[in-house]
Amino acid sequence: MPRFLISRLGSALIVVLGVACLVFLLIHLVPGDPVEVMLGESARPADREALRHALGLDQPVLVQLLDFLKRLAHLDLGESLHSRRPIVGMLAERVPATLELAAAALLVAVVLAIPLGTIAAARRSTGWDAAAMTFAVLGVSIPNFVMGPVLILVFSFWLGWFPVSGREGFASIVLPALTLGTALSAILARMVRSSLLEVLGEDYIRTARAKGLSELEVVIRHAMKNATLPVITILGLQLGTLLGGAVITEIVFSWPGVGQLTIESIQRRDYPVLQACVLVISLAYVVVNTLTDLVYAWLDPRIRIDDSS
Amino acid sequence: MRVWLPSALLFAWLTGAVLAPVLPLAPNDVQLPNVLAGPSPGAWFGHDELGRPLLDRVVAGARTSLLVAVSVICISIFVGTLVGMISGWLGGFWDHVIVRVIDVFLAFPGILLAIALAGILGPGIENVVFALAAVGWVGFARLARAQTLSVKHREHVTAAIAMGSGTGRILVWHVLPLIAAPLIVEATFGIAGIIVAEAGLSFLGLGVQPPDASWGSVIREGTRYMLVAPHLVLIPSTALMLVVLSVNVLGDAFRDFLDVRSGENP
After folding, report:
1. What distance in Å separates residue A184's CA from the closest CA in chain B?
2. Are the beta carbons of B223 and A252 separated by less than 8 Å?
3. B134 close to A22: Cβ distance less than 8 angstroms
4. Which residue among A38, A178, A261, B91 sits deepest, i.e. has the most Cβ atoms within 10 Å of its Cβ?
């Protein structure tokens, strides 16, 4: 186990370093002179030079990169060009909202997916199965920016059940969470179904059935446990899609999270803030993926043994 | 039924998109008397907030999405397959480096990197294509590498090496044909993802610029008038969903037909 742990953490560290380098390079992709783009053409030359110096853009690229990484290691992300506030503080305000949204969406996804996938597997090749899988195909094919406005139209404008946008009280999170969670639940439901089907073919399931257990008991008490492993992996992998999708969902519902900050920073050409947002979301994704791998190895000893041999 | 309906829908999408320039369309024709008018016999899809006919704008949007999807998938599959095959074939140090680069790209949620790139490069269809291809090649590279690894020790490849064929010739004639099927299946699903991503970028205002139409930007403009004219959101959304759904359903059928990735149960 220690060996697996070390190698997994080592490669995560390399990926983090690579992500930081790529995020650093983003500002160099700005067409033309980034300083001019950020300040506008009418800026005074003295201001431009001041900003260029403040961002370190007058240094050689390698020096800039090392400086960027060094500041990152001290959790110093610089300050916003727009509000002149430290970016770390801005992120600290926004991260809880995104975490809350992601957690609620995850809850929606799991609550929808597990019963759907289970029913589809237990009643394979029946109308139940077909209905559940139709939902799954529909779910992955409806983008957030379609789902969101349609939910707003029906549940906010027509029925008046939930607020249109913002983050005030419990009711305001329902629609964003549904928007973000549905696509994930569709993917999860398919995964639950297929991994349950795989497990249901095992010998010990036949034994359980032979003992006279009901189908429901067989699925829940015997098959579920072994079927969870692939589902956990997919959950970890899909969290990236969830976090990416959060950007669009936050815009649709004016949810004051990191995603909204990302788009605001693009509109204001506040590139240091944009870099910080991309970095934070990606790092969250890397951390979750690494944790998923470790949990997986902890749950399934076969993986650690394979890895060390 | 499972294949015919989606095929027909995709055919309609393709025809509309390809023929858009020669059809008598006026997607940018401002008709102020018809502002926000609902669907009617004269204008099936109604009119938008500037009185522009929505049907024409949806067809123009179909062209945008097709153009972006085809360009991105071509660039991604070419770059990804090339990098992946070279990496798998060479092995050793360079393989290690390329795998690390792929890992780094995969560490970004795809749409987030595309949003950041499109935001930094500025709006415009070329930048959308670049941003999406920069994200899209990775999947193909990983797949092509894994497939190349599984093929490169086969006897016919060894025979080709023994006969003195060059590396390029072996990769193109003896490896590529064997790894093409999974790449094509991946590309089918990739197209659905790219259509959604393009519309998403345009929805965020990072895609094609007004007055040009994209399904994403039409939906974005429509959300402002949703209470008075819900058709502005519902119609382009339905068009987008039907195309994506059709591509996904056909992709599933295609995968079953080729029977690659048999890990998933039917």
Report:
1. 14
2. yes
3. no
4. A261
